[in-house]
Write a structure and sequence with these properties.
It is built from 20 helices and 2 strands. The protein has a two-stranded antiparallel ribbon. Helix 11 crosses helix 18. With 384 residues, the protein is mostly helical.
């Protein structure tokens, strides 16, 4: 009898009796994400920890439990809850930006300042999604937090959602943003090809001029001063991005550059990815609001890509055919994936065409542009 009771207790402690159909569905979704990351190579550094966090929280929800006090004794929370606090405090998004800055070459943007225009044009998807979210019944702050998905920038999406106090929809926003970052090679090419002719895709651009070391050092300092003076609320993101880049370009802090771009970056990605994935419990994720957020994010991302390409076509006309409009699609801030997609689509039209460095200009401009868009929303709603 004791053996049967023991076996019965053990059986009741398994997850099989406590999970809902929603948990099982989210487990399947997590496995699909793992397949895309591992088998298809869709941003595995991001998608793998996100998918595994999703898997863990739907098997063992207590892994995201908040600390509680029972009979005057504080009970510890779930381990991923503590990871997630670093997201809510905006620590991890800012550290990600520092790492991105330390890895990024702003040379193509400095050599061709017109790239700023393409990066700015691609942000129109954010404002289109903002209007769409308002029309779908979300309030102003919710709409702004959702709209930033269109920039395809996960850290900025997390940063803005927390700053605007929209933690209740942070999970769907973050997962949508990172998912669309991962799916750039699938989403963008059809839009790019539909909006350009084969002749336009074959346009070869002149080699970029060399950029001096002084220009590279001054760039992060000047951008920080100008952008943060206009929109002080962008200082945590833009400041960390430019600090990381200054580490890289100054040439005098090699150890800091290596740490920011490698060890620290990978640690932060693990913490951020698993904690973001762990916000997608079935109870929080499987609802109609989540579906609307995912759809709006896709519309924003597609619209931003389309506007970037169309603006690239306009610049191509005005320049007498010297600019390949494909580089406009790289204005979304999925660095460097969006630039690689521009290169790939251009090479399909002409294998001798090399657009990667030209596309990196709008690509890194898009990172700055998305941070500025987030700062604009914060300014509109009076958030500092």
């Amino acid at each position: 009898m004791n053996i049967l009771d023991t076996l019965g207790n053990l059986l009741e402690q398994t997850a099989f009796f406590s999970l809902t159909w929603g948990n099982y569905l989210m487990i399947v979704v997590a496995c699909v994400f793992l397949y895309l990351a591992i088998a298809k190579g869709f941003e595995p550094l991001l998608l793998t920890p996100i998918a595994f966090g999703m898997l863990l929280v739907n098997i063992y929800p207590q892994i995201m439990a908040e600390p509680t006090v029972v009979d005057g004794v504080e009970q510890a929370g779930g381990v991923l809850w503590y990871f997630f606090q670093l997201d809510e405090w905006a620590i991890l998004p800012c550290l990600i930006f520092m790492g991105v800055g330390a890895q990024t070459d702003f040379g193509p943007l400095i050599a061709n300042p017109k790239s700023f225009l393409l990066g700015a044009a691609a942000q129109f998807g954010i404002y289109a999604a903002y209007i769409g979210a308002m029309l779908m019944g979300f309030n102003g702050m919710e709409s702004a937090a959702i709209a930033i998905i269109g920039g395809a920038d996960g850290p900025t999406s997390i940063f803005l959602a927390n700053k605007l106090g929209q933690q209740q929809i942070l999970g769907p926003i973050a997962v949508a943003a990172y998912s669309y970052m991962s799916l750039v090679p699938i989403i963008q090419p059809p839009i790019m090809k539909a909006l350009t002719t084969e002749k336009e895709r074959k346009i070869k651009m002149e080699q970029l001029r060399p950029v001096s070391k002084l220009e590279r050092i001054l760039f992060p300092v000047i951008v920080t001063i100008v952008v943060c003076m206009i929109l002080p609320s962008t200082a945590p993101l833009v400041g960390m991005l430019m600090l990381g880049n200054l580490f890289k370009e100054s040439g005098v802090v090699r150890q800091l550059t290596e740490t920011a771009s490698n060890a620290m970056m990978y640690i932060v990605v693990i913490l951020l990815g698993t904690s973001v994935g762990a916000t997608t419990s079935a109870e929080a994720f499987l609802n109609f609001a989540t579906i609307k957020i995912v759809v709006l994010g896709l519309v924003a991302f597609a619209f931003g890509t389309a506007v970037g390409v169309l603006f690239g076509k306009l610049m191509s006309k005005l320049s007498g055919g010297k600019i390949n409009p494909l580089i406009g699609s790289a204005g979304v801030s999925a660095v460097p994936m969006a630039a690689r997609v521009s290169q790939k689509v251009g090479a399909e039209a002409d294998p001798t065409n090399f657009l990667l460095m030209h596309a990196m200009g709008p690509n890194v401009a898009g990172v700055i542009g998305t941070a500025v868009a987030a700062g604009t929303f914060m300014a509109v709603f009076g958030v500092k």
